[in-house]
Automatic annotation (TrEMBL):
GO cellular component, one term: plasma membrane
Protein name: G-protein coupled receptors family 1 profile domain-containing protein
Pfam families on file: 7tm_1
UniProt-listed InterPro entries: GPCR_Rhodpsn, GPCR_Rhodpsn_7TM
Principal localisation: membrane
TM regions (residue ranges): 31-52, 87-105, 117-136, 169-194
The keyword Translocase is annotated on this UniProt entry: no
Annotated G-protein coupled receptors family 1 profile domain residues: 11-197
Transmembrane helix is among the record's keywords: yes
Length: 197
């Protein structure tokens, strides 16, 4: 986990710094790739939190399991992991749709401008923030949503169907499957158009 976390942190930090040079040229693609790198960087933050917790509680975790799973740090880690994964998924969907318009409909639709790209990114950030923060709202429906597993993940798709499992299914299965289908269909369409031309 340490290695994956550090690689995610360092690698995506390099991408953000490298792409920030292109942002001064106001390139939409660089803006979207930077946004993707920020999302992946946050996954590195989550991994380092989990690795640090593992190191801290090594050998005595069972004595502190309930305290850890109910802690603010566990809830923060769950929030960061959900925010990161959904930000990455939705950003990849936007990148794909931008490429689809550019390749399939180059003259019919205008390409995404920098101003509109910033608006779309802000909307995605707001949506992802709301998706990630709602389980922390204190509603009875969620009942320690992020603290149900030792690694503070929000994927509660189990036969036991704990409170909030529908939310997990909606976000991690339905939303992500919809994004996957959009991405897959778009690239298949682009492939056949490129092959034909």
């Amino acid at each position: 986990i340490w290695v994956q976390g550090l690689v995610a942190l360092c690698g995506n930090l390099v991408v953000v710094v490298w792409r920030c040079r292109d942002l001064q040229g106001r390139k939409v693609h660089s803006l979207l790739i930077t946004n993707l790198a920020v999302g992946d960087f946050l996954m590195g933050v989550y991994l380092i939190i989990i690795a640090g917790t593992d190191w801290y509680y090594r050998g005595v975790y069972m004595l502190h399991e309930q305290a850890w799973r109910g802690s603010h740090l566990c809830h923060l880690a769950g929030f960061v992991s959900t925010f990161s994964s959904e930000l990455s998924v939705l950003t990849l969907t936007i990148i794909t749709l931008d490429r689809l318009i550019c390749i399939i409909f180059p003259l019919r639709f205008a390409r995404l401008s920098v101003r509109n790209a910033v608006r779309v990114i802000c909307a995605v950030w707001l949506i992802v923030f709301l998706i990630s923060v709602v389980p922390l709202s204190g509603m009875d429906y969620f009942q320690n949503f992020y603290g149900r597993s030792g690694v503070c993940l929000a994927l509660h798709v189990t036969p036991a169907q704990p409170p909030g499992w529908e939310y997990s299914v909606g976000v991690f299965l339905v939303l992500n499957l919809l994004s996957f289908l959009i991405i897959a269909f778009s690239y298949i369409w682009m492939f056949f158009v490129a092959k034909k031309t």
